[in-house]
Amino acid sequence: MLDIINEFGYIGIFLLITIENLFPPIPSEVILTFGGFLTTFSGMGYWQVVISATMGSVLGAIILYSIGRVLSIERIYGIIDSNIGKKLHLKKDDVKKAGKWFNRYENKAVFICRFVPIVRSLISIPAGISKMKMGFFVSLTALGSFIWNAILIYLGGVAGKAWHNIVDYMDFYTRIVFIIFIIIGLIFAAIFVKRRLINNRD
């Protein structure tokens, strides 16, 4: 990744961030902080790096959004009715509830999730499934991504040769986010199981 940025500059950052959105395990923190470091001694400008990264973020998000648009609710119901869906005990009511939650908080979800590792990429799919207005989706994505990119690129520039230390801090931040999501997931799972047991008794 670093070789690509060194060789192709802004275009390299744009392409890498686009790919990072499609494959969340790729660490955008490395791309952004290293890009910030390059602004301290190369001919690359801070705002140009921020814009290149933001354009890559928006393009990647649009691709995932488009995938979500293809995944119509009918197709999702088809998966639920399939053997795999039955084995996983998937229910249409759960999908409907999730859809209602997203429709209620979609604006906040799309914006806030841009600051959450991995989730900031995946949030584009339910946005597409719910048929969120494209213009509004792109606007929220661009704003959230711009802020996220600008902060990390700035920190990379401030840290200078120690830019990799920012990556270490971000790795710690990512782990905490994962732990929080696991806890939330366990809570929802416990509530779900409890309700199923109550319904079975009735």
Instruction: Tally the helices.
Output: 11
Helix content: over 70%
- Label the structural class: mainly alpha
Strand residue content: under 5%
Mean pLDDT: 76
Instruction: Identify low-pLDDT runs.
Output: none
Radius of gyration: 20 Å
The geometry reads as globular
Order of helices and strands: HHHHHHHHHHH
Number of strands: 0
Spatial separation of the terminal alpha carbons: 57 Å
Overall domain count: 1
Largest sheet data: none
In a few lines, what is going on in this structure?
This protein has 202 residues and is mainly α.
Question: What's the topology here?
Answer:
Blueprint: H1 2-8, H2 10-22, H3 28-38, H4 46-70, H5 73-81, H6 83-87, H7 92-112, H8 119-122, H9 124-129, H10 134-159, H11 163-201
Helix pairs in contact: 1-2, 2-3, 2-4, 3-10, 3-11, 4-10, 7-10, 10-11
Describe the overall structure.
- With 202 residues, this protein is mainly alpha-helical.
- The chain has one domain.
- The protein is built from eleven helices and no strands.
- The longest helix is centred in the last third of the chain and has 39 residues.
- The mean pLDDT is 76.
